[in-house]
Design brief:
The protein is of the alpha/beta class. The chain has 9 helices and 8 strands. A hairpin with a 2-residue loop joins strand 1 and strand 2.
Length: about 230
């Protein structure tokens, strides 16, 4: 699935001149946790509920010991001051906007959200904002996901070949340690595992395949492998 398949559109936006109080009300009214800031049709920032947590009105602005201020870059101190006291979106918004294209794969997007510690990304086509993908969109996609059908029906041989092909691409899988048998849709694992995590991963791989009715894990723990293995 791609960004265009799960994105929310049209997107609720604000301008750089929108008052912070109005944005707080908008987030509450629309039950969203953030929105793009748009100027001249282009996304120039993102403002989230996290940007509104450190506010002087709430008494939650950052307060550091004087000695610590001497060690912190003045640019950081100035930015914190603006965020806690700014009255307009342009004073508070995050200007480093991370975006994705409509054809971006969901795996790419999930990795981006995780690496950048963000909760949403605008979907940009050319210079135009056409949607937004949030963590909630990814969860909805997971909830409605249907596994692709296996060609030539779900025969035991097809299941075995598909499972072997999948496992051979994984670094933790050691083919010399395992024997896999598929009988009447039931996957049987035999051999030794280095860890419980490896045992669980085998079962997860099998259960994710269409046509698998059950998994029987007959593997035993390699007593000569320590926990770091």
């Amino acid at each position: 699935m791609k960004a265009r398949d799960v994105m929310t559109a049209p997107v609720i936006t604000a301008t750089p001149e929108t008052p912070v109080r109005d944005i707080a009300s908008l987030l509450l009214e629309k039950r969203i946790s953030g929105l793009p800031i748009v100027e001249g049709g282009r996304v120039v920032g993102i403002l989230s509920e996290g940007d509104l947590l450190r506010r002087v009105e709430l008494g939650t602005e950052r307060r550091r010991p004087k000695w610590l201020d001497a060690l912190i870059d003045p640019k950081v101190q100035a930015a914190d001051f603006s965020v806690s006291r700014g009255m307009l979106a342009r004073d508070v918004m995050t200007r480093d906007v991370v975006s994705v294209a409509p054809e971006s794969e969901l795996g790419e997007i999930a990795k981006l959200l995780e690496q950048r510690h963000i909760k949403r990304v605008p979907v940009i086509e050319g210079d135009r904002l056409i949607g937004i993908v949030s963590r909630a969109n990814l969860l909805r996609a997971l909830a409605i996901y249907q596994p692709p059908a296996v060609v030539d029906a779900h025969t035991d041989q097809t299941i075995l070949e598909t499972l072997q092909e999948q496992l051979m691409g994984e670094g933790w899988f050691e083919p010399s340690r395992f024997n896999i048998v598929v009988s009447d849709g039931v996957v049987h694992f035999w051999g030794t595992v280095r860890s419980e995590e490896q045992r669980r991963a085998l079962e997860v791989a099998a259960r994710s395949l269409p046509g698998v009715r059950d998994v029987q894990n007959h593997t035993s723990r390699d007593i000569f492998t320590n926990n770091a293995g």
